[in-house]
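User: Sequence recovery, please. Input:
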């Protein structure tokens, strides 16, 4: 592998471009608030259908650019949320545009904040880990941090993991089952941890409970000082961001299974090397390698020749995932022969 002078790390900075459109839209108000949503779900979806794959594994570079980008993404999320608050509080965003601004902001939160949070919570350093949890706070998600690290990675591909979409399951059924399962398992996990440490099982040492209390206090503060329309918009953007998170979870493991005692490998997650998904989502689409080597930084993830490959990337598979017959037609015949536990 070439470890000097790589252009690969610069390509990941594309993740920041939608934030520019979002902030511009929130500051301008009106129909401008839809610019980022249209760009992200129409423009990028079409571009992904046109642009080729990039399966290269030979351009990994050891430099500080990935760390710089992660910091910039945290700053970008703060600016994004602030622009929504300012746009509404200043009267630039009113009426229907409250919804469209929240939708566009949620698009950015789902494709930047949660994606980067996913990267950061895997870091062992406390500072990076804290930033990951901060990004999850911005989308009011109390379960992903606990469930993803302690349960999903351990049980992926088995019936014990609610995040793994079952064969023949629609996104809509999955959405309810997955969120309910993650909330239940996260609460149980935190209860057990608190009991083990001698804390109240549902006190503020419980991460899930502490998050809910923090969200309530934050939204109350925003409502009092900036107006409850702002609080409502922040909730709406968080809801959409988390719907995108569950869409991502859905397509990452749909229909793939493993034996409970089988080691997780590169065949238990879907992969895509579409350039839009790769570089606008900091290689989240190389999810097979992420589960195979969970501690590997995003800029070092590889493409595996024997991993199942989605027919499109994350941008172009969004619409098919919402239309079950189309999704099943495109994906079901690509699923490797499933193993049954005897």
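Assistant: Recovered sequence (342 residues):
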């Amino acid at each position: 592998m070439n470890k000097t002078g790589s252009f690969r790390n610069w390509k990941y900075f594309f993740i920041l471009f939608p934030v520019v459109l979002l902030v511009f839209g929130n500051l301008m108000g009106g129909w401008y608030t839809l610019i980022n949503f249209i760009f992200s779900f129409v423009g990028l979806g079409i571009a992904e259908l046109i642009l080729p794959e990039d399966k290269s594994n030979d351009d990994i570079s050891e430099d500080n650019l990935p760390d710089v980008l992660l910091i910039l993404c945290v700053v970008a999320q703060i600016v994004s949320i602030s622009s929504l608050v300012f746009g509404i509080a200043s009267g630039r965003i009113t009426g229907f545009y409250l919804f469209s601004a929240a939708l566009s902001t949620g698009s950015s939160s789902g494709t930047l904040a949660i994606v980067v949070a996913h990267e950061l919570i895997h870091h062992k350093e406390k500072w990076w880990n804290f930033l990951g949890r901060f990004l999850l706070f911005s989308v009011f998600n109390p379960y992903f941090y606990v469930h993803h690290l302690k349960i999903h990675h351990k049980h992926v591909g088995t019936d014990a993991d609610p995040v793994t979409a079952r064969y023949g399951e629609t996104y809509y059924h999955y959405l309810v089952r997955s969120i309910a399962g993650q909330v239940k398992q996260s609460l149980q996990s935190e209860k057990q941890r608190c009991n083990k440490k001698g804390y109240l099982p549902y006190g503020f040492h419980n991460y899930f409970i502490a998050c809910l209390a923090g969200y309530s206090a934050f939204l109350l503060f925003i409502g009092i000082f900036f107006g409850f329309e702002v609080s409502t918009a922040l909730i709406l953007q968080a809801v959409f961001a988390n719907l995108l998170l569950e869409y991502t979870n859905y397509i990452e493991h749909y229909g793939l299974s493993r034996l409970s005692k089988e080691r997780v490998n590169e065949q238990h997650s879907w992969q895509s090397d579409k350039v839009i998904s790769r570089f606008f989502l900091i290689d989240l689409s190389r999810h097979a390698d992420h589960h195979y080597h969970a501690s590997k930084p995003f800029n070092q993830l590889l493409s595996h020749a024997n991993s199942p490959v989605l027919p499109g990337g994350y941008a172009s598979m969004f619409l098919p995932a919402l239309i079950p017959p189309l999704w099943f037609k495109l994906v079901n015949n690509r699923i490797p022969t499933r193993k049954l536990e005897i």
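The radius of gyration is 20 Å.
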